[in-house]
């Protein structure tokens, strides 16, 4: 045992101490199929987020394909994280609410009702989480949606139950709800189109490449969403950004660091042949030193 304590003392003297956590907090993702597919699609944005928070938080994907805010509000309690704390939550609804009232009355939710339900969902999530990000529904790429989603199911010339203009109206309300509830907001409706604008005077919509069917995200679209979310987290919630190890580029080893999130249990390189039990015995004391918390990476050493 004395060897173990001597090791802890050496590590404490070597650089800024860091302690591991006994459990992981949650990162909660609420939404419809665009969220659900974030964990199943190639290069999915939710999978990328889980990688970013690897070893530090459990990313819970509670995307429910086909759901609108009316249905989501009714089942919200079944979707909230069972963890002791939720450090980040995303709320992303509207793509189904914006469906045409005549052509798709089952999923359609009127704009005022959408506002009410989205506000209710966000406020209930905010009771458990201080860092909430509201996404706008994305734009509908009508040409792709018609050719890939609608006509193979309903026949050539079938009318569209979703439109670019309708998605804009719901995107505007999502932004208003985010502002009214003091939440961060990502306007995907605008950002997607700005990421691949048409040439001046052209009617083309090159931003269609961010979707595989005009509605759901392609691999490139998933990358865009992850990039925008990570940029917002860095701007609004910088303590949640996980800095990678400068030697390996990994975000889940002892060279990585995050101001707000400790790693779950000691990293393996904190366990030597001489201290096989000490990192775990330390749970009952004032905390256990592990690794160097990224102090060995010069670019992140702090100047006193």
Could you describe the 3D structure shown?
This protein has 304 residues and is an alpha/beta fold. Helices cover 36% and strands 9% of the residues. It has helices at residues 2-14, 33-36, 45-52, 69-75, 111-126, 142-154, 164-180, 188-195, 219-236, 278-281, and strands at 26-31, 58-63, 86-92, 132-135, 184-186. Strands 2-1-3-4-5 form a five-stranded parallel sheet, sandwiched between helices. Helix 4 runs parallel beside helix 5 (111-126). Residues 7-18, 283-292 and 299-304 have low confidence and may be disordered.
SSE blueprint and pairings:
Elements: H1 2-14, E1 26-31, H2 33-36, H3 45-52, E2 58-63, H4 69-75, E3 86-92, H5 111-126, E4 132-135, H6 142-154, H7 164-180, E5 184-186, H8 188-195, H9 219-236, H10 278-281
Helix pairs in contact: 3-9, 4-5, 5-7
> What general outline do the C-alpha atoms trace?
globular
Lateral arrangement of strands in the main beta sheet: 2-1-3-4-5
Oligomer: single chain
Reported for the largest beta sheet, the result is: 5 strands, parallel
- State the helix count: 10
Number of strands: 5
Extract low-pLDDT stretches. 7-18, 283-292, 299-304
The chain-level structural class is alpha/beta
The portion of residues assigned to helices is 25-40%
Succession of helices and strands: HEHHEHEHEHHEHHH
Radius of gyration: 23 Å
């Amino acid at each position: 045992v004395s060897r173990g304590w001597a090791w802890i003392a050496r590590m404490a003297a070597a650089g800024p101490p860091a302690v591991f956590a006994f459990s992981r907090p949650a990162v909660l993702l609420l939404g419809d199929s665009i969220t659900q597919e974030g964990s199943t699609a190639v290069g999915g944005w939710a999978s990328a987020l889980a990688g970013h928070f690897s070893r530090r938080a459990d990313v819970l994907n509670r995307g429910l394909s086909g759901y609108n805010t009316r249905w989501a509000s009714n089942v919200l309690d079944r979707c909230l994280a069972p963890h002791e704390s939720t450090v980040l939550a995303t709320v992303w609804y509207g793509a189904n609410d914006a469906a045409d009232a005549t052509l798709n009355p089952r999923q359609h939710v009127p704009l005022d009702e959408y506002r009410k339900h989205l506000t209710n969902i966000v406020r209930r999530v905010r009771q458990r989480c201080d860092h909430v990000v509201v996404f706008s529904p994305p734009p509908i790429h009508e040409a792709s949606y018609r050719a890939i989603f609608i006509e193979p199911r309903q026949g050539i010339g079938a009318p569209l139950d979703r439109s670019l203009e309708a998605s804009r109206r719901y995107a505007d309300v999502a932004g208003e709800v985010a502002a009214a509830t003091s939440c961060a907001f990502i306007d995907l409706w605008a950002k997607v189109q700005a990421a691949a604008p048409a040439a001046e005077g052209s009617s083309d919509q090159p931003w269609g490449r961010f979707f595989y069917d005009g509605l759901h995200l392609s691999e490139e679209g998933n990358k865009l969403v992850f990039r925008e979310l990570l940029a917002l987290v860095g701007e609004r919630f910088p303590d949640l950004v996980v800095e990678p190890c400068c030697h390996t580029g990994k975000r889940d080893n002892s060279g990585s660091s995050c101001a707000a999130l400790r790693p779950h249990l000691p990293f393996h390189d904190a366990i030597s042949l001489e201290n096989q039990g000490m990192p775990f015995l330390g749970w009952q004391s004032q905390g256990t030193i592990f690794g160097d918390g990224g102090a060995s990476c010069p670019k992140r050493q702090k100047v006193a």
